[in-house]
Structure of Aldo/keto reductase:
Amino acid sequence: MEYHEIGKTGMKVSALSFGASSLGAVFHDINEPRAIEAVHTAVDGGMNFIDVSPYYGHYKAETVLGKALREIPRDKYYLSTKVGRYGKDGVNTWDYSGRRATESVYESMERLGIDHIDLINVHDIEFADLNQVVGETLPALVELRDKGVVGHVGITDLQPENIKWVLDHTPEGMVETIMNFCHYSLNDDMILDYLDYFEEKGVGVISASPLSMGLLSQRGVPAWHPAPKPLVEACRKAAEHCASKGYPIEKLAVQYAVSNPRIATTLFSSANPDNVRRNLEFVEEPMDETLVREVREIIGDQMRVRWKNS
């Protein structure tokens, strides 16, 4: 496992890290003891960065993760969670007010059973008034950083241009990290257009979803996936091509996602410890560069096709 510092935070994290969204049963029902084992397997395998959100499973992911963390020494991992997106009784809610952000941090710490959050993020800023994020949400989190309640402050979004807008409108050092998903993967490397800018700002880059939320998998996309049908079909053909070579597209996708050292870490999520072990094995093996080129040729003009978050 390779390790990279996230920007200037001092947090040196594993190239592949654990996203806890699956613990909230956001993709399918989970077996809780196995889900807890998945967390332990990740940390034991060298993943030292864990990301979660109160939104995932409407607080369930944080609750299950908290149970897993009880048995893991605090110095074995960095913990990242978020504010802004929530939900109750199956209904999604959003609140980016400074007051709610502050309350949310303390609520998350209670669910997680910790007394310090290493990285707190404003979650999916495309759903917010960006002026509110700049003028209210982020200052509330910076105040908690100044008090030592949280270590570092970041923002997350699917759309890199929203991230850039916020960074353009905040003082240097207010935002220390950005998290972007589905834009450094076999079918989409849009985030590369922004890396110079992020580095000039001294901001660390976290990527997520190396499988592009199921596009780059043999199982295929879930029904809710927002990608257009031509892109889904192109990725299906790419998966079939990889299978014909005896090289699962999931393996290639994970290897590609962690191949750029300018991206500090890439989050993947699974509540299955066997999948965690498999991904750990993937990153220890060399990537087939020829197959990468073949897959990208198959996807062709569907590269970088945009879709909206949901």
